[in-house]
Specification:
The protein has about 400 residues and is mainly beta. The protein has no helices and 29 strands. Helix content is about 0%, strand content about 45%.
Length: about 400
């Protein structure tokens, strides 16, 4: 079983206004965030919207016990097929919930994964799903066309994070146990472990790929940088205070990587040109316990990341234009939020709960207390990542 010690949530004032939707946004599509609530065994669905009044709460979906990880296949702007399924790992009930986003219902529960399913990632083409099973030291491979487990792969001790390379040929699995502290590299053509990458820090958690042949791995007090084009060579270690956890890169030519932290109240923005922390962004207080992070990659109108603060029962949105907090969403629907994923969907009847919305008249510019810039303000970024949950030791 998995548990988190948390405190009651508090609201955080708003920051800068959100820009209007870009003219090149796809018609009849809009971004939605799926957020796993470990405390209530639910997934909250939020409509990111197209105006400064959004986002707004959309619906709640009941899943298995202690949901942690959330993932969906990437969706491009010219997407014309069906909306991709959403996959949720339920650590407490040892299952994976498959959500049809067109109806926001669980269409299948996959029960034959391993013990304490944790992280989850979907291939770029949406055909395969990989689930780490923390207590079984395995990875389950799911055929997305049938939503059945087709293979189980033995990996290292206590696998947590998992990510698929942009070309879909490799999967990195983070083995967090003290007898591992490494990465299992899986060849997706054979679904076998072909390499173990060491020297990624103590108690590693999560991993994210960039489009430039680089992977970033969070671990105790650092982020490791891996050259995936050079046989998985660790090329750098970036020091970060506390216990860095979630990580999101920007696949489309951004210079920034964002990292959450479970023991500080800050999200770190890493400058990829120098592999240094360029800004530490406060996200709610010392008990925030920030785990999940995802970015809206689908329109230039919303260059921002969503951060789940499990200890405060809220979600903070950060502008990647300025590395400052836009606002923090505090709502009764959040109950120890952990994993978060953002995808484009064709919902046409989207409505918003005004109690969780903020009008532009309520917004105000960020104060110096809302960010701690260590370098120049960033250029606009876009991207996404697959987050997962956390096991408290």
């Amino acid at each position: 079983m998995t548990s988190l010690a948390v405190l009651a949530g508090v609201a955080v004032p708003l920051a800068t206004a959100i820009p209007a939707v870009a003219s090149d946004s796809p018609q009849n599509y809009r971004p939605y965030a799926y957020i796993a609530n470990q405390g209530s065994n639910t997934v909250s669905v939020w409509n990111l919207g197209y105006s400064s009044d959004d986002p707004g709460f959309y619906t709640t979906i009941h899943v298995g016990e202690e949901p942690l990880g959330v993932a969906a296949a990437p969706v491009t702007r010219d997407h014309t097929g069906p909306d991709p399924y959403i996959y949720v790992t339920n650590a407490g009930s040892h299952s994976v919930s498959v959500i049809n986003p067109d109806t926001d219902t669980v269409i299948k529960t996959i029960d034959n994964v391993g013990e304490e399913p944790y992280g989850v990632a979907v291939s770029p083409d949406g055909s395969r799903v990989w689930v780490t099973n923390r207590d079984s030291n395995t990875v389950s491979v799911i055929d997305a066309s049938t939503n059945t487990v087709i293979k189980t792969i033995k990996v290292g001790e206590s696998p947590e994070g998992v990510a698929v390379s942009p070309d879909g040929t490799r999967v990195y699995v983070i083995n967090s146990g003290p007898n591992s502290n490494n990465i299992s590299e899986i060849d997706t053509g054979t679904d076998t472990v072909i390499k173990t990458i060491d020297n990624v820090g103590r108690n590693p958690h999560q991993v994210a790929f960039s489009d430039f042949g680089t992977a970033y791995v969070t671990a105790k007090g650092e982020v490791s940088v891996i050259d995936t084009s050079n046989n998985g060579t660790v090329t750098d270690h970036i020091p970060i205070d506390g216990d860095p956890y979630g990580v999101v890169t920007n696949p489309w030519a951004s210079r920034w990587v964002y990292v959450t932290n479970t023991t500080t109240d800050k999200v770190s923005a890493i400058d990829l040109n120098s592999n240094t922390v360029a800004a530490n962004i406060p996200v709610g207080g010392p008990d925030a316990a920030s785990f999940g992070i995802a970015e809206n990659p689908y329109t230039n109108a919303y260059p921002g990341v969503w951060v789940t603060n499990s200890g405060l029962n809220n979600v903070t949105r950060i502008s990647t234009d300025s590395n400052r907090v836009w606002d923090t969403l505090s709502d009764d629907h959040f109950d120890h939020p952990v994993g978060v994923a953002i995808t484009y969907l064709t919902h046409t009847d989207a409505t918003s709960n005004t109690s969780a919305r903020r009008s532009s008249s309520e917004q105000r510019p960020p104060t110096s207390a809302q960010s701690e810039p260590l370098g120049a303000a960033p250029a606009r970024a876009a991207g996404a990542a697959v987050p997962a949950g956390h096991h408290t030791r």
